[in-house]
Design goal:
Order of helices and strands: EEEEHHEHHEEEEEEEEEHEE
Strand content: 25-35%
Structural class: alpha/beta
CATH topology: Purple Acid Phosphatase, chain A, domain 2
CATH architecture: 4-Layer Sandwich
Distance between the termini: 33 Å
CATH class: Alpha Beta
Helix content: 10-25%
Number of helices: 5
């Protein structure tokens, strides 16, 4: 499996090249910021349109991760839908696709800042989930340890053999993991943004997703080069 393995609060985890996080001991797959229905929302609001295929593309990649890991628990870390109306406008074929994923699995929807309340979709809806030694929530909290979160859509750059490229990235330190956005139509916040630099400890790394994972010291802003102690 194309992944980066590490330990957080004693739990052995794998950051997958797709942007999903896998916890083998619990057979648990975690994804963040799916943003289903983004193209529908943009069209509804009169914004420049996007091809309306992003939900299917995201579901195709999620299906691949579920097949590869055999996960029996899935946690979606918030902002699974681009807004409440996008959630209710989800086409029936895609609702059925999600229902097939959910069959025989524990499925938890963590609420995010874009998310609606309980929907017609199956699963458990929670503000956050404690699964010691880890805690799953949408947005990171300073002072928390063993935390898995999303929200910021982190990305980072890597210079390699005279060229450079950028990718969505996991940010990892001894307290927390911030997951990249899993959804197809999602922007990102550079890891050297002051917000992310201020959240992560000095030893933090960025694990870039894509065809092959790449781990490197987390690029951070000049003002936060020393990181949190």
């Amino acid at each position: 499996m194309n992944s980066y393995t590490f330990t957080l609060a004693g739990a052995g985890l794998s950051a997958l090249a797709s942007g999903a996080l896998y916890w083998p001991e619990r057979n648990l797959l975690c994804v963040s910021d799916l943003h289903f229905g983004k193209s529908e929302r943009r069209a509804r609001l009169g914004e420049p349109p996007l091809p309306p295929y992003e939900t299917r593309d995201t579901l195709t990649r999620l299906e691949s991760d579920l097949r590869r890991t055999g996960a029996t628990t899935v946690i979606c870390l918030g902002d699974s839908f681009d807004d409440a109306l996008a959630a209710h406008a989800l086409p029936e074929a895609e609702r059925l696709w999600i229902a097939r994923f959910q069959a025989g699995r524990r499925w938890v929807w963590i609420t995010g800042n874009h998310d609606p309340g309980p929907l017609e979709l199956s699963g458990t809806y929670l503000a956050e989930l404690s699964s010691p030694p880890l805690a799953f929530r949408h947005m990171a909290k300073i002072g928390q340890s063993g935390e898995i979160s999303g929200h910021y859509h982190p990305k980072a750059r890597l210079a390699l053999k005279g060229s450079s490229f950028s990718r969505p990235a996991f940010l990892i330190d001894s307290d927390r993991v911030i997951l990249p956005a899993y959804g197809t139509y999602t922007g990102g916040l550079w890891s050297d943004d002051d917000t992310l630099s201020g959240l992560m400890r000095a030893e933090a790394i960025a694990v870039l997703t894509g065809p092959m994972v790449h781990a490197l010291p987390m690029p951070r802003s000049r003002a936060h080069r020393s990181g949190r102690s």
